[in-house]
Amino acid sequence: xxxxxxxKVEFNHAYFISAHIHPYEGGGFKFAPDxxxxxxxxxxxxxxxxxxxxxxxxxxxxxxxxxxxNKGTRFYTCGEAVVHVDKxxxxxxxxxxxxxxNDIQLRCIxxxxxxxx
Length: 117
Hints:
By secondary structure, this protein is mostly beta strands. Strand 6 and strand 7 form a beta hairpin. The chain is built from one helix and seven strands, in the order ββββαβββ. It has one domain: Sandwich (Tumour Suppressor Smad4). It has one helix at residues 55-63; strands at 2-3, 7-8, 14-20, 42-48, 73-78, 80-93, 96-107. InterPro entries: NAD/diacylglycerol_kinase_sf, YegS/DAGK_C. Residues 12-114 form the YegS/DAGK C-terminal domain. This is YegS/DAGK C-terminal domain-containing protein.
């Protein structure tokens, strides 16, 4: 993974990588407690080197809005990320499937969406 074109981060056996501009993921999971929709930054959560059963504490912490500081869970903040995996992994955007991909580019454009509430 390459963050902002300069910071290279490598992982073995990544279970999932999630990028957020809002603290909550579908169903109320708070994978990125510090994410903000208007700062122009992505909050990225990486879960790697874990057995599936070790994912349970991470999910429980995210349900209660606490960051999991377990070994194998890492958090990053950046404006842009490029992710490459050796074997294609399932990708979804807001719950919509993008099928399996080897390479994805993620970017946050500050204040690109305006809403009247």
